[in-house]
Amino acid sequence: MTLTGVEKILGNFSLSIKKLVVSEPGIYGLVGPNGSGKTTLARLAAGLLEPDQGRIDPEGLNPGDITFLSRKPYMMDETVYNNLVYPLKLRKIQPDPKLTAEYLAMMGFSEKGKQKARSLSGGEQQKLALLRALIFKPRLIIADEAMAAMDLDSLELFEGMILEAQKKDPIIWIFISHQIPQIKRLCGQVFFIDKGRIEAQGSADEIFSPGTNPRLRQYLRSYGSEEAVCT
């Protein structure tokens, strides 16, 4: 996917992206302060918003190949099981009982398949949303603080799942997170956005290096992640 000359105005906020390319399979990070435009950019990439100007080239990705995960995922007023398999049914794919059982067991949902998904805790809903996204094998997953409420064990398990899956069948991930250590663990390329503009981009080592630009350094300090910058 390539964004070229993309402009979007929402109230008093203006997003302006000269060019952003995430066309190769890999895990990309998007960091920046609150209100910098991360979610607006993500929703544009996911097709949930239309740009006022510019072009978003999906480069062969169909709408059904893309999924967007938010900090507070939407849960249908259905069971955990029905929420999990909904993307498959939407695409007229018969759920594999063995696979669905494995997915439910993976996050401790084996005994909760018939429970209403909306009764789950915030962290459990995030886990179910990620499983729901993975089960239909999309080609682009945009995760906007999608692991923020998870416990450390679940976080470690999902990160391992993602890295292992990338070895077998790599797709495009865009991770939005204030958790700089997680961005460093997962992401090959990182974009730093501030005030609606991409201010820096490069490998994680390049972005979180002593020579990083002042705005990025200030962001890392503001979010308690100054240790992420090697000194």
Describe the secondary-structure layout.
Layout: E1 2-10, E2 13-21, E3 26-31, H1 38-45, E4 53-57, E5 66-69, H2 80-90, H3 97-106, H4 122-135, E6 140-144, H5 152-168, E7 172-176, H6 180-186, E8 189-194, E9 197-203, H7 204-207, H8 214-222
Parallel strand pairs: 3-7, 3-8, 5-6, 6-7
Antiparallel strand pairs: 1-2, 1-4, 8-9
Helix pairs in contact: 2-4
CATH topology (fold) name: Rossmann fold
Note poorly predicted spans: 226-231
CATH architecture call: 3-Layer(aba) Sandwich
Major sheet: order of its strands?
5-6-7-3-8-9
- Distance separating the two termini: 35 Å
What's the Cα radius of gyration? 18 Å
Structural domain tally: 1
Task: Say how many strands there are.
Answer: 9
Overall pLDDT level: 92
Helix content: 25-40%
Overview of this protein structure:
It is a single chain. With 231 residues, this protein is an alpha/beta fold. The protein has one domain (2-74, 140-228): Rossmann fold, CATH 3.40.50. Helices cover 35% and strands 24% of the residues. The chain contains eight helices and nine strands. It has helices spanning 38-45, 80-90, 97-106, 122-135, 152-168, 180-186, 204-207, 214-222; strands at 2-10, 13-21, 26-31, 53-57, 66-69, 140-144, 172-176, 189-194, 197-203. It has a six-stranded mixed beta sheet with strand order 5-6-7-3-8-9, sandwiched between helices. It has a three-stranded antiparallel beta sheet with strand order 2-1-4, with helices on one face. Strand 8 (189-194) and strand 9 (197-203) form a beta hairpin. Helix 2 (80-90) runs parallel beside helix 4. It is globular. Mean pLDDT is 92; it is low at 226-231.
